[in-house]
Design goal:
Elements (H helix, E strand, L loop, with lengths): L8 H13 L4 H16 L3 E9 L2 E8 L10 E3 L3 H9 L3 E3 L21 E9 L2 E10 L7 H19 L18 E4 L1 E4 L2 E8 L14 H25 L5 H14 L2 H12 L4 H16 L5 H22 L13 E5 L4 H7 L5 E4 L7 H8 L4 E3 L4 H4 L5 E5 L4 E4 L3 H23 L5 E2 L5 E8 L6 H5 L5 E5 L2 H4 L7 H15 L4 E4 L27 H6 L1 H15 L4 E5 L5 H20 L8 E7 L2 H4 L3 H6 L3 E4 H8 L18 H17 L3 E4 L6 H9 L4 E4 L1 H12 L3 H13 L6 H11 L1
């Protein structure tokens, strides 16, 4: 039975503030706090467990349990009631602990005498720091008032831990933000970089969680909320006629900013002894904890909006805006939860590397990072709460990991890796102007992928034969409104000027799926990668396609022009797109504008269906480019955004190589030029195998041209083709093992 017992949280916080105001060691402070809570709540036991590593909790202080168990009792995440509180981030309140699911008896603590148990997570903005526990002999559930008091104390403990108030001996009480930490994420852009942390959004730190004068704290809160509401209204007025999705987000901001329930909870926390910023952060921590438990995407987005709004309010209350006065280091590694393409372009090539907590391999930020050749690791959970501006960090984009504050051993190994890469780059530079000619006398054309003017200097430096893919969508993605035809024409002309006499293939607008324009109405699709995207959008909304085709014709100004349409799945899509091209040409001719001296119109083969098109298609198309990234995901039915499956299927799988060989054969029979574009074209082993089965044109990121050319110049493709054929005939699922054995022997 729940007994209604009152615990004066304001008085408790006042006494807690007095403890924190006195100079003392971390262990002494923890012991004083557990004693204080037991005394104020009239209970027998209060204990504090802190994480010593990501999976292990340690008893760091207790009042009522066996003192000898302090720093000796440890448990794994999810082990016992304490471990369950830590794992779930939820309160456990029971009047019969031994009978509660998950209970684990710890004989060294002497806790068998206590029936009631209340465990509250110690966490800050979703970061788990430990568990605060109170226990009593009497079999009872703790009242709402008591639970609230313990939650408030747990929140203050989290803030004090962040400020270094509990530093002591042992891993569980070591200084925060000083230990080496390894973050495992996913590769979005290969490469290695070392530098120092630059936080895209500096973390707000609450330096005083206690309310000296609750009345004044309420005034501060109301003043800050008024400023917040004015700011949201101003942003709403600015985008009234703009993007509907952005409008919905801001309307959600306004709803939360005017929410009486939200304000009432924050005001109640202030009345119980918290400062205004601590009360806001307590509400934010609760929302962020719920965010990780919610499966519904819509509700999760709304909680994310509330989290962002809380950040804005905290910056107003603390005065800790985006401009903190910190100076960007000369070798910045950008750390952020996520970042848009325009913001990333603002940083430009000044960044040495990027690590994101969120992100996707096909996101806008990833596209820009690849264009700028900046190593990028995504899905590095927790790094924004652990990293501080100026921390040393190593980014290994090849492995998808980041070493924050690395120790000397890790740093030395990483330094050696970078030195080896530098030597390799010197070797690649020595063959930059030499052809990609194999030992058996076959010559390949190696081209680069691009999407920004910033890419074009790499055309000469990389030794690329031309631009095999210029992604035109980046110019649409980084703007807040649709670019004008004249702006696009000027850009495309500059691209051709920069390429000089080297060919450039422009891919028309490839939007949809993971590339949604900020000023276009988003579509709610269950599987956007297979939905309304690329050529499908262009044919359904031909106005934009016509405008882009006209811009490309005008940019050519009488020069040769090559265009290809993305994501063509069947012949009639290409036929309709080619008709739009012809209409655009005729219109420009009527207007008296110069027509390209030579025009080639191709298609990207990204769906298996196009490979089986009728012969007429192969005769109609001027060239084909295999879009390896999309083709592989559709061939294997493995979403390339899904880390669980995207690495499961090998490019050198026999079935996939056989399929590519069939495409090569059909193109050879119809004399249709064929290229391969994508990540695999830039991987030396995969590139050599693609060349061995008949591909003679590969397009990749600029940094990959040197390594690919190097392996091709040392390989006999006829011999390698034999190895592939023999491995395929043996019944093996992949030819990789046989190919690697051959290359190790020959290279």
């Amino acid at each position: 039975m729940t007994r209604d017992r009152k615990t004066d949280s304001r008085k408790l916080l006042g006494r807690l503030r007095d403890i924190m105001a006195v100079e003392a060691g971390g262990q002494t402070r923890l012991d004083q706090i557990t004693g204080l809570i037991a005394e104020e709540m009239l209970i027998e036991v209060c204990s504090i467990y802190l994480f010593r590593d990501a999976d292990t909790l340690e008893l760091c202080s207790t009042e009522g349990l066996n003192k000898e168990a302090v720093h000796q009792t440890r448990m794994r995440m999810g082990e016992g009631l304490v471990g369950r509180v830590a794992r779930k981030g939820h309160v456990i309140n029971t009047d019969d602990a031994p009978s509660t699911k998950g209970f684990r008896y710890m004989p060294e603590t002497g806790e068998e005498a206590y029936s009631s148990f209340l465990g509250v997570p110690i966490q800050r903005l979703g970061e788990k720091l430990g568990v605060l526990v109170v226990q009593s002999r009497e079999a009872r559930k703790y009242s709402d008032d008591e639970v609230y008091a313990v939650e408030v104390v747990a929140m203050v403990l989290a803030e004090m831990a962040e400020l270094g108030a509990f530093i002591g001996e042992g891993a569980a009480m070591s200084a925060r933000h000083q230990q080496p930490v390894l973050f495992r994420g996913a590769t979005a852009q290969e490469g290695a970089a070392r530098g120092h942390v630059w936080l895209h959004e500096p973390r707000v730190v609450v330096t005083n969680p206690f309310a000296e004068d609750p009345t004044r704290e309420l005034e501060r809160l109301n003043e800050a909320v008024d400023e917040l509401r004015v700011g949201v209204d101003r942003m709403l007025n600015h985008v009234r006629t703009g993007d509907k999705e952005q409008l919905e987000v801001l309307e959600t901001y306004r709803m939360f900013a005017n929410s009486k329930g939200w304000m009432r909870r924050i005001e109640a926390d202030i009345g119980r002894g918290l400062s205004a910023e601590a009360a806001v952060e307590k509400e934010q921590s609760t929302a962020r904890s719920r965010m990780g438990q919610v499966a519904d995407a819509y509700l999760r987005d709304r909680l994310h909006d509330l989290d962002d709004l809380s950040n804005r309010l905290l910056r107003i209350l603390t005065g800790q805006g985006g401009q903190t006065g910190a100076e960007m280091p000369p070798d910045p590694i950008l750390i952020a939860r996520n970042i848009g393409p325009a913001e990333l372009l603002d940083y430009g090539r000044s960044l040495k590397g990027i690590v994101l907590e969120e992100g996707a391999v096909g996101s806008h930020a990833t596209i820009v990072a690849r264009a700028l050749a900046i190593p990028l690791v995504i899905n590095a959970r927790g790094i924004t709460t652990e990293a501080l501006n100026g921390d040393p960090i190593l980014v290994d984009g090849d492995q998808g990991i980041a070493h924050l504050r690395p120790d000397d051993t890790v740093f030395a190994a990483f330094k050696d890796k970078m030195a080896m890469q530098a030597k390799a780059q010197e070797r690649y530079a020595s063959i930059r102007d030499k052809p990609a000619e194999t030992l058996c006398g076959k010559t390949l054309s190696l081209n680069m992928n691009a999407g920004l003017m910033a890419d074009l200097p790499s055309l000469q430096g990389s030794g690329a034969d031309g631009v095999g893919l210029f992604r035109t969508e980046l110019q649409f993605l980084i703007r807040s409104q649709m670019p004008r035809r004249g702006e696009l024409s000027e850009l495309y002309a500059r691209v051709m000027d920069a390429a000089a006499d080297k060919p450039v293939i422009f891919r028309t607008l490839d939007i949809g799926s993971d590339k949604v324009l900020p000023y276009m109405k988003p579509t709610d699709e269950p599987n956007p990668a297979m939905g309304w995207r690329a050529i499908r959008v262009g044919l359904d909304k031909p106005g934009v396609m016509r405008m882009q085709l006209q811009a490309l014709i005008r940019a050519a100004a009488g020069r040769p022009l090559s265009i290809m349409f993305p994501f063509v799945a069947q012949r009639d899509e290409f036929t309709m797109a080619r008709t739009e091209m012809d209409k655009a040409l005729e219109r420009e001719r009527v207007l008296g504008h110069p027509i390209p001296s030579a025009l080639k119109v191709g298609a990207m083969l990204e769906t298996p269906s196009l490979a089986f098109s009728p012969e007429q298609f192969y005769r109609e198309v001027d060239f084909l480019s295999i879009g390896g990234n999309d083709l592989k995901q559709f061939f294997f039915a493995a979403d390339r955004e899904n880390e669980r499956v995207r690495r499961r299927y090998d490019t050198l799988n026999v079935s996939f190589l056989t399929f590519i060989e069939q495409i090569v054969a059909r193109c050879a029979a119809s004399n249709t030029p064929l290229s391969f574009c994508g990540e695999d074209a830039g991987r030396p082993v995969e590139a050599a195998c693609l060349a061995a089965i008949g591909l003679r044109n590969l397009s990749m990121r600029p940094a990959s041209i040197g390594p690919v050319k190097s392996i091709l110049r040392r390989t006999n493709l006829d011999e390698l083709a034999g190895v592939i054929a023999k491995a395929s005939a043996s019944g093996n699922q992949s030819v990789r093992a046989d190919v690697m054995d051959y290359l190790r022997e020959k290279l």
